[in-house]
Amino acid sequence: MCALRPAPRGTRGTRGRRRPARIPGPLLVLLGCLPGLAAVAALVLCAGGVDRAASAHLAARAGRPTPARTVTGAYTAPRPHIVPRSAWLDARSRHDQPPPRYDDEVVAVFVHHTDSPNGYACADAPRVIRYLYAGQTGVRDWDDIGYNFLVDRCGTIYEGRAGGVDRPVTGAHTQGFNHRTAGIAALGTFTAGVPVPQPMVDAIAALTAWKLGPAGVDPRDMVRLTSSNSLSRYAAGVTATLPALAGHNDGYMTSCPGAALTARLPEIRATAARLQGRTAATAPSGTLTGTP
Asked: CA-CA distance, 12 to 247, in Å (whole number)?
């Protein structure tokens, strides 16, 4: 289960307006399915390792990492089908929020699980995402859902954080490493022994291949990322070498994305590389991307 910590007092969106914490009626139904702290874990979405929007904004003002040395070439992948936010976020549930923030490019992807129940029908995935959004924007008073994308057990990809799926939107998914990365959340709990649906694995691979393609990043490679927050595994300002396709626990002290999903990451990397047109002959050559 993902590490938890209390929400800081005075948490606000980037506009500085504090919204009252409120829990919609349907959210209470979801929480009723989870005992005690497990309900909190599902609601905050591995919140112990997620930067709130205000922290990301302050880090951006303090200075972003130096632009990466990118690798040019033809290793890109087609865009997979992505269901827009409008499929899960209705006018009644939507919160006011500041404009999206952007980085120069996406050079790494962090994979998460949502610590929520696995037995949902795929047709109910929009409702589950809406409840998760309510937990982050209501209980934790964030300006938006933290993840850039969410993937359900049937392999359907949903747009998460606002700003445009084809743009390098600054997320709020991995403490210290929200800049120049994308966060993909697998809907469910994938601890040791829990099967990870193959359609979900394939969808994460397709999404990773597409998002890393424009920067020329091989999903099997390592990248250099600079931590913006000392609550991560690395002190603020430290440049860490991490997998281009990483688990949440690579950047933060947590068990997320769960042992079962973590075990599938090598397969996801290999599939994503193949979707980019790479072969065994184009093996990763080390740290290709990052700050000098």
From this structure: 27
